[in-house]
Amino acid sequence: MSAATPAPGAPAAEAPVLQVENLTVAFPTEDGVVRAVRGMNYAVAPREVLGIVGESGSGKSVSSMAVMGLLPRSAQITGRILFRGEDVLSMSPRQQRGLRGRRVSMIFQDPMTAMNPVYTVGDQLAEAVRSHSAVPQKVALKRAKDMLDLVGIPQAEARLRAYPHEFSGGMRQRAMIAMAIINDPDVIIADEPTTALDVTVQAQVLDTLMSVKDAVDAAIVFITHDLGVIAQVADRVLVMYAGKPVEIGTTTEVFSKPLMPYTAGLLGSTPSAEGTRAGERLRPISGAPPSLISLPQGCPFGPRCPLVRDDCRASEPELRHRGATGAALAGVAAGAPLPVVSPNHLAACHHSDELLAAADATRFFRAESEVTS
């Protein structure tokens, strides 16, 4: 796949600013090789928000750390990571350092461990500027103050002299956002940036992140396990399971008509006000994710999937477009319009047609008593 060729599920309007092609990441251990990422493909257009969701251990964060060049030396990485057409993996360490924090930046999950406790917030923000620009400390601190103002931290000039522990959780995360945007990056990778925050503060931080995204004209790769957050902020969503993307499409498409049982299971296990009012129970996915050292034969989701068949156990499905065939067409009433699947809505499932035919794809995860009642 060339730099000019869109990755699977890529938006066609603009050339991607970030493109990941067949990325694999493995970690040798005493128990065997952990295949943390197994063929990751995606593209992010300028100013787009791509959400990446999945359970813990699905490979979300490892793939983002590979993009940033922050994995340990023991990691075995193959594939290509293209930033504006240039392969990051083929760059020298010095070139990667010049890219990291300037053109591509990252917001980490826990700002308390991401920030240095013995330096003031102002000094750390100024250091981020001076690492990439030969400017005096005074100019860097002025830039730091402007960024704290932009992310909504009150009394920004006084806060420059404060230490991270003197900030509340929400303020620390805003300071991390300020650090991420201080060099006007083209891409921001946000790795679970709201997980440790309460709901009210989470909403404020999300609003801040979306505002500063527009201010610096950046694209965002938003990594989370919270589907509610993705519904609020993402233009497209990529669902990961066992180290591979299993579905990708616009947020509306994936949430309204999932084509992969795992996606339907995630949606069915997410609390909603509508479900609570109707007296419905959550529909959890049974079992646990497979070991990345010893994956099952065929589809890795097979042991947990209510639609599993012999063909699922025989071969792992590819991530590709799944049109309306088989059960999807059989389920259409006479005279009703045929179900339409967008060309950029891709899924890795042999039986997507059954999900497409269902009025509610999450019903496959209901207990038998719920289905028959």
From TrEMBL:
The question of whether Nucleotide-binding is a record keyword is answered with yes
- Single GO MF annotation: ATP binding
One GO term of the biological process aspect: peptide transport
Q: Which InterPro entries match?
A: AAA+_ATPase (IPR003593), ABC_Ni/Peptide_Import (IPR050388), ABC_transporter-like_ATP-bd (IPR003439), ABC_transporter-like_CS (IPR017871), Oligopep_ABC_C (IPR013563), P-loop_NTPase (IPR027417)
Record's keyword terms, sorted: ATP-binding, Cell membrane, Membrane, Nucleotide-binding, Transport
PROSITE patterns named in the record: ABC_TRANSPORTER_1, ABC_TRANSPORTER_2
Q: Where is the ABC transporter domain?
A: 18-267
Q: How does it sit in the membrane?
A: Peripheral membrane protein
Q: What is its main location?
A: membrane
The UniProt similarity line reads: Belongs to the ABC transporter superfamily.
Name of the protein this chain belongs to: Peptide/nickel transport system ATP-binding protein
Organism in which the protein naturally occurs:
Quadrisphaera granulorum
